[in-house]
Amino acid sequence: MFELQLKPDGNVDWYLRRDEVAHGGYGSITYHDYDTAVTEARSTNLLLKDAVNNLALPLQQAESIRLKVRKALTAEERLMDEERVMLMEAIKRHRAEPRPRLEDLTVLNGNDALRAELHRCLLQYPYVQLVFSARYGMLLEYKGNFTWRGIGANSQKAALYAYREKIARGFGMSGTEHWGRTKAAIRDAILPRANKLLHLASMKLLLADALHRGQRVLIAGSFVFWYENGNVPRWVVKQTGASGKSETGDAMWLEGTILSKNHGRIVVLPYIKENGERVQGYTKNAPHDGKALLRHRNDYVELPFEVLKGDLMYSLFGELHYE
Q1: How far apart are the first and last CA of the chain?
Q2: Helix (H) or strand (E) holding 313
Q3: What is the pLDDT at residue 161?
């Protein structure tokens, strides 16, 4: 768990939240399941929602901090939702993969308890080659032939690599590689699955409902379900593009429109610059795609968009029914 802290220079940044009672201020707070962590994060955010009011700051400065907080939270929620979908797809791709037996595993520089912990992880993620044990402060690396080697490691970095490994290795990549490039490759790998969603009865119902409400753009993680009202009106899948230069993802401006002057497959959502300037959304092609086919000026479309809630998005990729 991380928390957003206000720094003396007026900016905000994320810091690892510490469990001061249990670990004397040095241990990170960990959770055994995703839903528990999300529930606590949301309830804590509600309690802290009006914290800026207690700082007795000038109105303009307080509004600036609120904007930074909204941007930071939105960016992290987007990343969290997108990576959850990627993780679910990684697990799905290896659902039929055989699981190792406990007695087949060998852990060099480890003990029986560590081997049992490794086995529990491999039952859920049989494809990974890096596993981190917070209990023993040990990073386990697969050496082949059911043999793993335990190495001491920086706990925060090792935990991060092991988390990314659960996603990346599911698509044939490593959790230690450049994360931005890895996620870009995963988006491309998942795109055919997103296109297949258009043929599901549950997705057809959801899109028909959206169209009935006058909504023609739905955002689901890194994918955009876009209603193209051309010669043959139909729903198509596009991908979201970055808004600005943040390495961790940029906050969407959750009010506004997308002005499409071309048929580009990338949708850059509206966003707010650091100076408060609001930038309207637009469409474009990826760098290697060439120039996007232009729309006739009379065919320019300016559309609002709707962001699907995380739970619904996970359900869609899990192919659950929409009601």
Answers
A1: 33
A2: helix 310-317
A3: 94
Long-range CB contacts for residues 221-228, cutoff 8 Å, separation at least 24:
221/78, 221/81, 221/82, 221/85, 221/313, 222/82, 222/187, 222/190, 223/190, 223/191, 223/194, 224/267, 224/305, 225/198, 226/267
**Residues in Cβ contact with 17 at an 8 Å cutoff, skipping those fewer than 6 apart:** 1, 2, 3, 28, 29
Helix ranges, 95-222 (H): 112-124, 155-168, 179-197, 201-212
Question: H-helix or E-strand containing 272?
Answer: strand 271-272
Cα separations in angstroms, 138 against 64, 170, 202, 214? 42, 22, 44, 53
Which portions of the chain are predicted below pLDDT 50? 23, 244-250, 320-323
Cα–Cα distance, 99 to 117 (Å, whole number): 14
Q: Where are the domains of the chain?
A: 2-93, 102-177, 192-317
Q: What is the pLDDT of residue 20?
A: 63
Establish how many alpha carbons lie within 13 A of residue 195's alpha carbon, considering only the half-sphere containing its beta carbon.
9
CA-closest candidate to residue 12, choices 46, 55, 47, 42: 55
Give residue 170's pLDDT: 96
**For residues 188 and 277, is the Cβ–Cβ distance under 8 A?**
no
Query: What's the rounded Cα separation, in Å, for the pair 268 and 289?
Result: 16
Distance CA 104, CA 145 (A): 9
Q: From CA 243, how far away is CA 317, in angstroms rounded?
A: 25
pLDDT at residue 274, as a whole number:
66
Q: How far apart are alpha carbons 273 and 35 in whole angstroms? A: 32
| pTM as predicted | 0.72
Alpha helices in 16-105 (DSSP H): 20-23, 34-48, 59-93
Question: pLDDT value at position 246?
Answer: 47
**In sequence order, which residues have a C-beta less than 8 Å from that of residue 94 and are 6 or more positions away?**
125, 126, 127, 170
Residue in the block written with tokens 């001491």: 152
Alpha-carbon distance of 68 to 71, in angstroms, equals: 5
pLDDT of residue 11: 87
pLDDT at 245: 47
Residue type present at position 77: E
